[in-house]
Amino acid sequence: MLPVRIISHFNPDTLHSNPAFSQVIAVESPAKMIYIGGQNAVSRDGKIVGEDLATQSVRALENVLTALESVGANQENVVKLTIYVRQDQPLEQAFSSAQRVWGAHPTTISVVVVSGFANPQFLIEIDAVAAVEA
Length: 134
What we know:
Layout: E1 7-10, E2 24-27, E3 31-39, H1 53-69, E4 78-86, H2 91-102, E5 108-114, E6 124-133
């Protein structure tokens, strides 16, 4: 894996602090930026994995990790996750599943509740931005 010396995590004293995420991440130049497109709970052969949010969260994050690994990065290199969850789903299922797969890598994170996805069987979609040394 590549070193991540170019990434610094900050949690200002005046903002809420949580071990699951960082409030601010700074990336020093020069850096190679990596953008991972929205990942759903889809297997390599295109089949949807799981019918519940917990299972789909695990698979979507595994797909993010696979995409990162394909360019020599891992979750330590991620500076931003955006997680889209269908509005009728219990968010706590996604959070607990995410912690098991993602581990103790507190990136910045946004969670957006949406009415639906292009495929109505999708319950979650996750995209990521990462940085590695150039």
